[in-house]
């Protein structure tokens, strides 16, 4: 059965509801942007520090080697950081917004002793290629990037890990390219079909920024204002930031600012959300066949726990681990807890083949 099939009337009503919600939160976002401008003043609002080179902390060899990879399917190039030997099994990490490869620093350091760890900067981020159109950021296209990375690095399959919107990309990769995903780890991100079908009014309020991002120009100004204060606020504020502030420094935040301050990076990062709403993916094959570990920080300000519960029905073999006190940024907020859950999952024996019947 096609679990995504819906009556045409429901599609129309959903589209109209999306337009109305986008308009309302677009107006709200514009109002907040004007308030920022009035509070900061013109000079501070438009202040942006030039960052032509990555911060020294980002180039520390302890995290691995920085390289570029030209993808065979699209011709774009992705920046990635890797550590480990090519003959080791690979863990591939996919970051969320407004992050980059560096959000996986704790996991890369921990697992590099036993695995080849690779963290990409998705298209649109940092020095990776930045295709100009919204359609270039459809989930299927982003999943194709991940598939190319796996194959071009010489692997038949890998352990795939995603967080936030990188989690949506990882879910989609596991659906479209099941042969490439041996195990799947998702952090604080619902299955794409669960996100579509379980979008309650309460969740719409949590996700208001996604609707605001559907508008043009103003969201870019909002994110870039006062030298990307949006990024610092997201990680620092009590309502949105890490619970354990010792795990995020101003130097760490500056790496994320560097990533989004590259030419056209802010617009491209926002195009992820625009494509998510404008192009409805065909998820008729929504079930995930790979074993799944879904980690969920219970203090997530973006996604409610209902999404975690709803995501389970699209997985044939899933373990849901709720982390009490964890924020949306659990891979950075509680790295020891996250790494231990991941390690236990990785070390699980493969499921036994069913006994043949005679």
TrEMBL record:
One of its GO terms (molecular function) is epoxide hydrolase activity. Keywords: Hydrolase, Membrane, Transmembrane, Transmembrane helix. InterPro entries: AB_hydrolase_1, AB_hydrolase_fold, Epox_hydrolase-like. Residues 91-331 form the AB hydrolase-1 domain. Coiled coil: none annotated. The chain crosses the membrane at residues 12-35. Belongs to the AB hydrolase superfamily. Epoxide hydrolase family. This is AB hydrolase-1 domain-containing protein. It comes from Adineta ricciae (Rotifer).
């Amino acid at each position: 059965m096609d679990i995504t099939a819906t009556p045409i009337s429901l599609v129309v009503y959903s589209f109209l509801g999306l337009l109305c919600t986008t308009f309302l939160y677009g107006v709200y976002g514009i109002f907040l942007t004007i308030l920022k401008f009035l509070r900061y003043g013109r000079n501070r609002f438009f202040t942006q520090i030039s960052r032509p080179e990555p911060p020294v902390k980002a180039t520390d060899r302890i995290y691995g080697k920085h390289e570029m990879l030209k993808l065979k399917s699209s011709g774009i190039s992705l920046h990635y950081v890797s550590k480990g030997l090519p003959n080791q099994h690979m863990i591939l990490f996919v970051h969320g917004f407004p992050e980059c490869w560096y959000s996986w620093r704790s996991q890369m350091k921990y697992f590099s002793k036993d695995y080849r760890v690779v963290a990409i900067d998705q298209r649109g981020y940092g020095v990776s290629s930045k295709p100009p159109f919204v359609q270039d950021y459809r989930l299927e296209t982003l999943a194709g990037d991940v598939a190319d990375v796996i194959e071009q690095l010489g692997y038949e399959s890998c352990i795939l890990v995603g967080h936030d919107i990188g989690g949506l990309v990882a879910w989609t990769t596991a659906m479209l390219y099941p042969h490439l995903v041996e195990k799947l780890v998702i952090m604080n991100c619902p299955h794409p079909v669960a996100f579509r079908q379980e979008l309650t009014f309460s969740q719409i309020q949590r996700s208001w920024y996604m609707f605001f991002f559907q508008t043009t120009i103003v969201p870019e100004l909002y994110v870039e204002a006062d030298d990307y204060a949006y990024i610092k606020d997201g990680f620092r504020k009590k309502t949105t930031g890490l619970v354990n502030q010792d795990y995020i420094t101003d130097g760490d935040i500056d790496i994320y600012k560097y990533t989004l301050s590259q030419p056209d990076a802010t617009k491209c990062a926002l195009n992820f959300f625009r494509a998510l709403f404008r192009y409805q993916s065909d998820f008729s094959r929504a079930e995930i066949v790979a074993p799944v570990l879904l980690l969920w920080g219970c203090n997530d300000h973006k996604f409610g726990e209902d999404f975690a519960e709803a995501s389970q029905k699209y997985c044939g073999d899933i373990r849901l681990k709720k982390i009490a006190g964890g924020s949306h940024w659990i891979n950075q907020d509680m790295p020891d807890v996250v790494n231990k859950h991941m390690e236990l999952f990785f070390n699980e024996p493969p499921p036994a083949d069913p006994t043949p019947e005679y």
